[in-house]
Structure formats: structure tokens, C-alpha cells
What we know:
Blueprint: H1 9-17, H2 23-38, H3 44-71, H4 93-118, H5 120-135, H6 149-174, H7 189-212, H8 214-220, H9 225-254, H10 268-280, H11 284-311
Amino acid sequence: MSTSAAPSRVKVWLMAARPQTLPAAVAPVAVGTGLAVHEGMFTPLPALAALLGAVLIQIGTNFANDYYDAVQGADTPDREGFTRVTAGGLVEPASVKRAMWLTFAAAILIGTSLVAVGGVPILVIGLLSVASGIAYTGGPYPLGYHGLGDLFVFVFFGVIAVTGTFYVQAAATLASGFPLGVPSGTVPMAALLASLPVAGLSTAILVVNNVRDREEDRRTGKRTLAVRFGYTASRIEYLALLALAYVVPALLLWRGFDLVVLLPLLSLPLAARVSQTVLTETGGDALNPALERTGKLLALYSALFTAGLALG
Length: 312
């Protein structure tokens, strides 16, 4: 009789960090930096610090989700998603919680360099991002358990992440000293528009996750939007988020950007293929690959969008 070997410690921690979710951290920084290049405000060190901070916040949030979903009973043996190390007994809960705090502490440490450039607005954004990463599944009112997860991802991994990345580079270029407010020209309308595709596609990843987990979440009391409103509403939400992503480049073209800003439209075939799965399937066998492909769609779209903004 053969037995499967236990995963190595390195592999276990990689499972907890969930590197497949990192496009959601890298994409907004790339797009915000692409716009900074377009506006002649690219500043390498703030851009790099923003990237490292975003990756650490994403990993810290993944550790928080792994820990809090396990201790609150939301992860059960029937879960169809990727393995969670706390619920699976691969790592002691205290160790995962410690890793969460250490990762968020590292993000805050890196963020101090951004605060020196961006002032009070970046301080507020950084602290709110860390607090929300914990509050997504932890604390007295977990956002993800009350149907607020979609809004959290849209705002923090989309709008704030893109505009914040652009802001620190613009502040380094336009501002002097330690800004107490938002200096003029550091958050233009173009930055807000450019944030919407990333916000939409990042949230679409969560929608697939919640459609896949709907039945388990319903049994464990996790009231996601998929649980509250059902499969049809979630599929409409998914399509609406993708539509938002593909409308924005046309709006930027209309606002005077170069034709190359339409480069993200090259990712439409992938969007169409993954949408067919999301619109027809509910099980993990089909939706786990769809979840990964939506992450790849975010990565591809963001790479094309970044190039279109920078080259334009």
C-alpha cells in the first residue's frame, strides 16, 4: 500500500501565500505606473516600493483569509477550492496568524518610504489597506461574510491601488515636502478611469470564487453576494465587471489618448472563453480552472493596458 508524501514546508507556505493571486497585486501597480509614464511622471523608487507593498498586502490578506476562515468554520472538508493550510492541518493556526502580522508589518515598513513622498494621503491609504485586509475575513464584522467582499476588492485592489500608485509618482514629481492633502494634479480623472478595469477584473476573480463556493458558504453562514442573490445575479455581475474593463479604453481614446490605448481589446477572446464557463458551471472541477484563467485575464489585460498607456 502506497502513501502520498506530505508536502514540504516551503510548498505549504507557498500554498498559504497563494502566488496565483499575485496578479491582483501587480496589475494595479503596473497600470498606475503606465499612466505615470504617459503623463511624464514615472519615478522608479516609489513605483518599486508600491509594487513590493502591494504584493505584501496581498500575501498578508491571503494568510488572514486562510487563518480566519478556518477558525470561524467557513472552510470545511467539502470545500472545492485550493487547499487551505490552516483548515487542512498543515500549519498550526498560531503560525499562520503570526505570518499574517509579520507580512503586514513588512508592508508597513516599506510603506514608510511612500509616506515620506506622498504624505498623509498615503499614510491613510496604507493603514486602511492593512486594516481592510484583516477585516475581510476577521474582526467583529468580517466584510466577506456580509456581502461586502466585492466592494472591498473593487475599491482597494482596483481604484485605490491604481490611483495610489500614480499618486506617489506624481507627488514625487509635483509636490515638495510632506503633503498633508492631495496636491493638485496628482489624482487626475485619467487615473480614476484607468483604475476601473483593474477593479472590475480583480472583483471578477472573487465572483468566480464565490460562485464556486456558494453552497458551502450558504451552509456555513458566509453571506457572500452569490449566497444572497444566487447564481444568475453573480453571472450578471461577472459580465458587467468584464464589460466595464473593455469600455474604459474607448473612454480614454475619446478623452484624447492615442489609439494604442485600445491594446487591451486583444484579450477579448480569453474573456469570452472564460465567460462561457462561468455562465454555465457551478462545480469546482470547472470553476477552479476558470478562476485561474480569470487571473490570467487580469494579468494579460493589465500588461496590454500598461503598454497602451505608456506607449501612447
